[in-house]
Design goal:
CATH topology: Bromodomain-like
Order of helices and strands: HHHHH
Largest sheet: none
Structural class: mainly alpha
Number of strands: 0
Low-confidence stretches: none
Distance between the termini: 17 Å
Number of domains: 1
CATH class: Mainly Alpha
Shape: elongated
Helix content: 55-70%
Radius of gyration: 20 Å
CATH superfamily: DsbB-like
Amino acid sequence: MITRLTGGSLFLAGMAALGIAWWAEHVLGYAPCELCLIERTPWRIVGVLGVIALLVPGMIGFWATVLSLPALAAAVMLAGLHNGVERKWWQSPLPSCHAPVFHGGSFSERMAHMPLRPAKPCDDPTYLFHLPVSMTVLGGIAAAVLFALVSYSVVLQARQWRQTR
């Protein structure tokens, strides 16, 4: 019972995070930066593991729940990294987050080396709902809260199994 509840929560949280990112990008027109795109990967993993925990009870569901914890920890760490870039505490480790630098050459040569679509700089935060908190920080908070809840759920599941044996 706890495994299925946790699995459903993981699935819903993963789909909510990805849905909000999709909505911000495709409906509101916000362009994601490269770090934003990378930050979506842990949420995809959490969603898939949530489906497994929801549909396959027992040990497999339990271990799917346990395996969601490293993905959630990665989501928190990526959000922390991105928040530091947004606050200009450090530069992004990704070269695609920086503006291209051109040295010499003609105008046509420079245009040929331009990216096909302009990239959003990673140090430009995106704010939703007129809150003074960026999407990056909101995602990090959501991942941290979910990490704590799933950790508690794993402890409860382990206790429940010890009592039945």
